[in-house]
Amino acid sequence: MNEDLTFDKVLNELSGxxxxxxxxxxxxTYLRHGHPCLGVDWIKDHDFEAGWVxxxxxxSISDPVFAGHFDDAAMYPGTNLxxxxxxxxxxxxxxMTGKMNGEVTAFKNINSDYGHPxxxxxxxxxxxxxxxxxANKTMTVRLEGKIRDFPYYxxxxxxxxxxxxxxxxxxxxxxxxxxxxDGIWM
Length: 186
What we know:
Order of helices and strands: HHEEHEEEEH
Radius of gyration: 17 Å
Distance between the termini: 38 Å
Number of strands: 6
Mean pLDDT: 91
Structural class: alpha+beta
């Protein structure tokens, strides 16, 4: 399923032809996360049946992480970026496999690759697509995020450098009964 999808296909060919926007408030209905841990601003377009999402995330200097990351050159932490994009995967997974009914989601594997720092003031486009349909309560997803209007993915900057996407991830997400999840810690 969706082995042929890429960031560019999701944003440039599929987005705008799907089922439409999902507001920030509605995104929260798919997640157990709340503020300040909620990292999804809104879904620009999606097709849960086909297994893809185009989401948008604004990185504001008012985010508390910038108070200590770093004084001399503010950058959005990679751990937060990974959490943000995997929350979009959780929305896709939950929508494709049904309501949680007392279950929780967890990530079995997260393989992340970072292409460059993210300074405050950026808008990120995220593409997330399922590689399978979530049978047996597990799903593999691919995720990619790029800064909107960042010219140095395709052309070199003044130092001759080009960059990989801000983040590229392959994750495996699972559903578990709450008592199994709780049992890990007890």
